[in-house]
């Protein structure tokens, strides 16, 4: 691959790639603090790149504070870098369980979210504030080739063939994938939707009505709040632990106190906290809700983006009552612009299918079949392995550098999957002010208030680490840190 | 064009095309009753087709009862055919104004509609019951070529570029088209949606809330009823005249009697009645609603399918208060499977745009840009002229043959545009029984009950005439007529 200037992550400059690999090696303890890394010549041979590329990479690593050069001796891992890149001490990680007041609230966060998204679109900077994964990591050309081939095979297309529940082959492929991951599902339960957004909307509409109260995590992913807002329901935020997930005792208390029509959660790689609930806690949650006949809407859009060895279980895994409405999509792992999602609505299947028909009539078939063809014929697993590796690596780089650049007292989440980092700033910092100041410098962040109905999390920001870790990204993060420090 | 066996209307067999042209000429009085049509040799020269094709065409016309051959003399227009094809007498056309009771009702028609659509999909017969136009008349390949070219120009696609209100170039093209048709609109008002279905849903949700009462035509297009059903509202059906449209006095009375939150109408080529409201009546309707501050949701999906010389006006044309929410799509005129619709929501624009974001996040960009490219570069007007000619011709053929095949007392609508015929059978006939009996013979019809909240219109059916008028279609219509006759 020529070393031409490149922008996208899967086309990073070679020296950036090399620098990232060495960073990752330091993080993993391959090179310990004070240890010498490979010489320029060795690295050139090991990685099959030019001397110039290695020199570039080492210069970048120096600027990142990961290695230092000692004259006549070579490059050595800095003590501070090894500490920063190693799993952070408890104080700088995790943080406390949230403590929202036990009062349902009406929801109106979409204005803030939409204006944030617009500002991201309007700016050309590194989009730390984006909720979407870097699309350049997705196999856009392959999927489009399938779509084009399908379209060409037909002289015309009858809308009537697109009626819910969706294309049978895609449904089969989705069911196969769950089965391969040890989570058998009934293909007959699947309803194809326009992204997980529609799946979540329809699921909520199937189980609750305007004015009802819905329990959510705190902080909660605003897509959940949007669904509640859209239907004129009320949200009650439930204390949520940054590692363990929703507090089941707190939820039990909320249920005892008032009628809860549904519970919306994201047990795997929650956005923004990044936790993955344990099997035991998932089971407890399902059992608590089942005991009160409360449907659970499970947003599992990051299901393929795990950093561990296997795909985690879902609430669905532990559901014996058909009370879990499981929602997912390909938007975070394969193609966002095709808008293919699905619901596994349990006992509410008929209602969800009918609502799908009423809401948008059909999900276009060609994109459905293109995804099915890709799943059947192409290297989805290989693609996902690459995606997970990149995200995992970029998560650790960003975590380390946030702790380095941001003011004392800043804490970061430890994402177990996905592509967002939750950053707790010193309480004095108003993240809306930080958002504005950053925007003026062409940098976006996700203000914490988007994740609450009650303007909570004012000193939190969400950062997206799916984009390539370039010098520009690093400079932007440094600027952010300086802005935050000035506000602290 | 070779005379190979062809199925689709724009690929009708040549002899079928010729037969249709002669039928149309008879309908228009070019050939009067008893008059001799062109000789086989003349017709062969005039139409540039083989002798064999003309013989085929004349045989088909004979079987249709339009011409008769007289030995040694040639082919003559049958008296009965000329009568049947000429504009029907008032008794067999038009029909009376509907007279629904003035009571709002909850809505639950989607089950019947969905099961009808499924039965159409499951059968291979001529789909008289389909609500969708024959897709083979659409420029599927051209649109797909544009889509493929757009996809290839990009290495990836960022979802963030697809945020509402939609692709700016498509919005510009839509506004240009309205302007060319003498209906200037503000591009800044347009919100792109997933088909008119979503536009109607969002418009209704923007102006009314669950439990509210919405005024609709009687019969009304069930897409309107679906929107009402989806949001848990109630419908009040208003008397509607088969030629003049919704009865404005009856609507005024309904408004005087109860709180009406919105009025949903289809002033142009209403489905199923096919009328086109006059400018004067449109103005009166807009003024009545404005006087009571009642928003009007205008479904104008058939706007391009007029049989007259020009595109008719819309309610929007007469709206000075921003109270008209105008909804339309490309699904009936260009491509159904791309699911591109839009709303012009007047003073409710901000709400509709927000609801779009909450409902489905985005409308995929590539289909939007493909349609915009087609509109800008390709022969949309030529395509539409062809479509209108085919529909107009097939409307008159089907009307004539329904009157010929169906029992005495059957009346048909006189569609002024669109592609559906509304057929009133003798009152003794239950169209659900006819629907079932036809289904057993692989023929579908649209049962009248789909167009009412109260199981009205039991002796009505809707027939789709967009599909090619083949011998098979004709035989199917004849069978339908026989089934109806047996039930009368």
UniProtKB/TrEMBL annotation, chains A, B:
| CDD domains documented for this protein | AAT_like, WHTH_GntR
A molecular function (GO) held by this record is: pyridoxal phosphate binding
Q: What is this protein called?
A: Transcriptional regulator, GntR family
Q: Which residues form the signal peptide?
A: none
Against InterPro entries, the record matches this protein to: Aminotransferase_I/II_large (IPR004839), HTH_trans_reg/aminotransferase (IPR051446), PyrdxlP-dep_Trfase (IPR015424), PyrdxlP-dep_Trfase_major (IPR015421), PyrdxlP-dep_Trfase_small (IPR015422), Tscrpt_reg_HTH_GntR (IPR000524), WH-like_DNA-bd_sf (IPR036388), WH_DNA-bd_sf (IPR036390)
| Domain HTH gntR-type as annotated: residue spans | 12-80
Q: Which Pfam families match?
A: Aminotran_1_2, GntR
Q: Which UniProt keywords apply?
A: Aminotransferase, DNA-binding, Pyridoxal phosphate, Transcription, Transcription regulation, Transferase
SMART domains documented for this protein: HTH_GNTR (SM00345)
Coiled-coil boundaries: none
What Gene3D superfamilies does its record include? Aspartate Aminotransferase, domain 1, Type I PLP-dependent aspartate aminotransferase-like (Major domain), Winged helix-like DNA-binding domain superfamily/Winged helix DNA-binding domain
Which family is this protein grouped under? In the C-terminal section; belongs to the class-I pyridoxal-phosphate-dependent aminotransferase family.
């Amino acid at each position: 691959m020529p070393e031409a200037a490149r922008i996208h992550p899967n086309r990073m400059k070679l020296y950036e790639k090399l620098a990232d690999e060495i960073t990752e090696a330091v993080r993993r303890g391959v090179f310990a603090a004070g240890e010498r890394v490979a010489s320029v010549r060795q690295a050139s041979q090991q990685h099959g790149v030019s001397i110039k590329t290695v020199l570039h990479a080492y210069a970048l690593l120096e600027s990142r504070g990961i290695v230092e050069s000692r004259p006549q001796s070579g490059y050595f891992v800095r003590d501070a870098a090894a500490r920063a890149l190693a799993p952070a001490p408890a104080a700088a990680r995790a943080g406390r369980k949230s403590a929202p007041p036990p009062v349902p609230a009406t929801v109106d966060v979409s204005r803030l979210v939409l204006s944030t998204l617009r500002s991201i679109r309007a700016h050309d900077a590194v989009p730390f504030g984006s909720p979407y994964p870097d699309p350049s990591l997705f196999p856009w050309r392959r999927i489009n080739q399938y779509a084009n081939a399908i379209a060409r095979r037909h002289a015309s297309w009858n809308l009537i063939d697109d009626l819910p529940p969706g294309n049978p082959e895609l449904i089969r492929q989705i069911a196969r994938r769950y089965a391969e991951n040890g989570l058998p599902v009934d293909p007959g339960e699947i309803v194809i939707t326009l992204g997980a957004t529609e799946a979540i909307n329809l699921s909520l509409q199937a189980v609750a009505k305007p004015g009802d109260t819905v329990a959510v995590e705190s902080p909660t992913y605003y897509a959940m709040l949007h669904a509640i807002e859209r239907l004129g329901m009320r949200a009650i935020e439930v204390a949520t632990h940054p590692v363990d997930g929703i507090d089941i005792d707190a939820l039990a208390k909320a249920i005892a106190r008032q009628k809860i029509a549904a519970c919306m959660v994201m047990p795997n790689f929650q956005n923004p906290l990044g936790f993955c609930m344990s099997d035991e806690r998932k089971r407890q949650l399902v059992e608590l809700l089942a005991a009160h006949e409360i449907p659970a809407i499970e947003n599992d859009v990051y299901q393929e983006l795990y950093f561990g060895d296997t795909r985690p279980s879902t609430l669905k895994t532990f559901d014996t009552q058909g009370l879990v409405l499981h929602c997912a999509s390909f938007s975070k792992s394969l193609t966002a612009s095709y808008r293919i999602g699905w619901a596994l609505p349990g006992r509410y299947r008929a209602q969800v299918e009918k609502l799908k028909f009423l809401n948008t009539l059909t999900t276009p078939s060609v994109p459905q079949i293109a995804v099915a063809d890709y799943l059947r014929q192409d290297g989805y697993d290989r693609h996902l392995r690459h995606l997970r590796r990149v995200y995992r690596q970029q998560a650790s780089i960003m975590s380390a550098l946030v702790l380095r650049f941001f003011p004392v007292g800043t804490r970061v989440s430890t994402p177990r999957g996905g592509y967002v980092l939750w950053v707790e700033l010193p309480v004095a910092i108003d993240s809306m002010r930080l958002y504005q100041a950053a925007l003026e410098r062409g940098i976006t962040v996700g203000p914490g208030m988007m994740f609450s109905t009650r303007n909570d999390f004012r000193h939190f920001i969400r950062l997206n680490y799916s984009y390539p870790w370039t010098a520009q990204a690093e400079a932007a993060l440094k600027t952010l840190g300086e802005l935050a420090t000035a506000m602290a």
